[in-house]
Amino acid sequence: MSDLAFASATELAAKIKAKEISAAELLELYLQRVDQFNPDINAVVVDIREEARQQAQAIDAALAKGDDLGPMAGVPMTVKESYNVAGTPTTFGNPDWRDNIAAEDAESVKKLKGIGLNIFGKTNVPLSLADFQSYNEIYGTTNNPYDLSRVPGGSSGGSAAALAAGLTGMEIGSDIGGSIRNPAHFCGIFGHKPTFDLLWLRGHSPPGDLRAPGDISVIGPMARSAADLQTTLQTMAGPDDIRQRGFQLNLPEWQGRSLKGLRVAVWKNDVNAPVAAEVEARVALVAQALKDAGAIIDEDARPAFDAAASHDTYQNLLHATMSARMPEASYDSLKAYVDELDPNDRSQKAKVLRAQVANFKQWTTANEARHQLRWQWHEFFKSYDVLITPMMATAAFEHDHSNFSERTVLVDNQQRPYFEQVFWAGLTGVAYLPSTVIPTSLNDAGLPIGVQIVGQEYDDLITIGVAGELEAMGFTFTPPPNYS
Fold this sequence. Notes:
Layout: H1 2-5, H2 9-17, H3 23-41, E1 44-47, H4 49-64, E2 76-80, H5 107-114, E3 118-123, E4 135-136, E5 140-141, H6 157-164, E6 171-175, H7 181-187, E7 190-193, E8 218-223, H8 226-236, E9 263-266, H9 277-292, E10 296-298, H10 307-323, H11 328-339, H12 348-356, H13 360-380, E11 386-390, E12 408-411, E13 414-417, H14 423-429, E14 435-442, E15 448-454, H15 460-472
Parallel strand pairs: 2-3, 9-10, 9-11
Antiparallel strand pairs: 1-3, 4-5, 6-8, 7-8, 7-14, 11-15, 12-13, 14-15
Helix pairs in contact: 3-4, 6-7, 8-15, 10-12, 10-13, 10-14
């Protein structure tokens, strides 16, 4: 039965439909695995199994009558803790929000339930969703199932760890600085960061019924196959209730296309955020596989902007957005501190602090620079269909709960700044581009390494489609050895 636990959600749904297993039986399989393996991994941190058991019985009864409950009917699922699920806490890992109990489901959760997914728990996050690791005072630390001494990524680290360990059939995360993509890379699964505002975020927010989407931030699917990403993305995508009066979804399709003739740009490494030789080699491996399938590869192609300037724009917008989540008193204290900085201080720390309390004119300047980047990417994608890049500098690193300012990452025997790794997420995220992370098998230490496939805005199904083609060529999820 352990092989079943690691199947894709698409495969699981097919087995339920074919009466090879019931929704109730499949749920119990995952619950047994959670009870057995989760104490060491600590990925699933909120349990709503009794409600899920009742739902599984209802699904089985409806299927027995011949009802069509959707393409994922009966598949057990967990969701990132930052999504509202009625009757459960939504804390963002913040102890101040420990008692924030959701009154109703997030819009995306409603849509996923509408295609038959059965939610039985929620998964761990870092404090305020702001780390490459996933730990907080409320729920503790989540470990990587390939090596418990290492991180699963963040902020959707619990989501990725649960999928990799075979504790759930499907997951959803969120991403502003790689929070879907870096956990997918570290845990060897598939993850998709959608085009900005393609998926309605309502119900994925700190306490309060917030209606405005946070800048750069998106929600998206995480899974053990590209097909799962496509089904759930198409389920969650679309305009909100106001915009749908005048807009409808019409994403470009991959179906009917092939890799032959696909125009592929490759960005294997960058001086602004050097990656390990083994990570660069995986990008090259994917590029070679595409070339062997008939794609046209260009390793020198770059958009017409300076990568360092792009990263500065991203950092300015990112830190302004993240600081908006701060409690009022914390923000006021930060503002007072920044006001006392030496005007001549141009250190990286000072730049970050100033970005966190940027005034509207400063933010607008950064926003204009971002939209210049969007149009430069638009021109770039007239010549290329997709771009292949690294996702993170290394495979999963060991837990490090020291102060952010003290953390570094060892990249081929060189200590690099901890948050330098956000470069590869921000390169595309700042310009609203969709990107899909695929696994490329394990390294010599038994740790996964992922690669990012980037497309132009609204080419979500194209990047997922390319991911699916690569999956069929052998770039597949590899279960961790100790969870059979």
